[in-house]
Amino acid sequence: MLHFNEIVFGPIQSRRLGTSLGMNILPAKGKVCNFDCVYCECGWNADGVSDRRFPTCEEVEAALESRLAQLIQEGVKVDSITFSGNGEPTLNPEFPQIIDAVIRLRDRLFPQAKVSVLSNSTLIASDKVFEALCRVDNPIMKLDASSDALIDMINKPVGGYSIERVIDGLKRFEGDFVLQTMFLRSPDFDTAAPEALARWMDIVRELSPREIMVYTIDRQTPDKSLGRYSVQEMTAMVQPLLDEGFNIQIRG
Predict the structure, then answer these.
(1) Of 82, 184, 98, which Cα lies nearest the Cα of 139?
(2) Cα 31 vs. chain centroid, distance in angstroms?
(3) H helices within the chain, ranges in order?
(4) Which of 21, 102, 121, 194 has the least C-beta neighbours within 10 A?
(5) 51-83, pLDDT tens digit by residue?
(6) What is the pLDDT of residues 148-199, one digit of tens each?
């Protein structure tokens, strides 16, 4: 499984974000997440090592400044500075300060790049986290399924989870966010089963995000029973939303 040992990694070519410079503001030698997704490229939470030290804002700022200076010297293009890494980035206690530091560096050194955050949407009830997400160009918020039961099977949240609470939190963006959904199936579930898909589309209509990223598994997954969907299948799934004018990226 994939772990990110540095604060700044890449750039890599992202299916959804172009040339993406990764930011890992989680412990370097293990996974820290309040989800334990069946498809996570970082593996199961229990398989992570015992490192639980989060990098500080000062460490993140120094690492990014050094890497951006190097990329400028090398003439490398960066489309997105992207928070992802070994788990849920908003769990870093200095997340808001880190966002501000990264935006300052971006503005000074790589003004053409976007700042993106891949989040599982669980901490947007925190005003400080929500306000920080509102300051980035691309708050990319996960909602993989349309019911608590499906979320439990796919994302395996640690602690309490309520899809209605997450939906209420996402409404605070007033549509100015990117919704990210993984479509997949297994012997135990299918996120595109008719009832689940219809409910998901109703949630999309309720939230009216400016963009939707629909994708499927592309890398090794800890649960080996998972099945992927083709771009053609996913296009057919979301065709009603496309017909209604929603902006949808579909990636296989």
Answers:
(1) 82
(2) 15
(3) 57-74, 95-109, 127-135, 148-154, 163-171, 194-207, 231-243
(4) 194
(5) 678 999 999 999 999 999 999 999 999 999 999
(6) 999 999 999 988 889 999 999 999 999 999 999 999 999 999 999 999 999 9
Q: What are phi and psi of 101, to 5 degrees?
A: -65, -40
Of the candidates 2, 237, 36, the residue with the CA atom closest to the CA atom of residue 154: 36
Distances (CA, A) of 213 to 7, 27, 38: 25, 27, 19
d(CA 147, CA 149): 5
DSSP state of 170: H
Structure tokens at 113: 């790049």
CA distances from 200 to 43, 78, 174, 216 (A): 26, 33, 18, 16
Tokens of 47: 């398989």
Closest CA to 114 of 75, 79, 89, 72: 79
Compute the Cα dihedral for 207, 182, 115, 56 and give only its sign: positive
84 with 119: CB under 8 angstroms?
Answer: no
32 three-class SS: strand
Query: What's the pTM value of the predicted model, to 2 decimals?
Result: 0.93
CA quadruple 116, 121, 124, 128: dihedral sign:
negative
Q: Pairing between strand 211-215 and 248-251?
A: parallel
In whole angstroms, give the CA distance from residue 143 to residue 148.
11
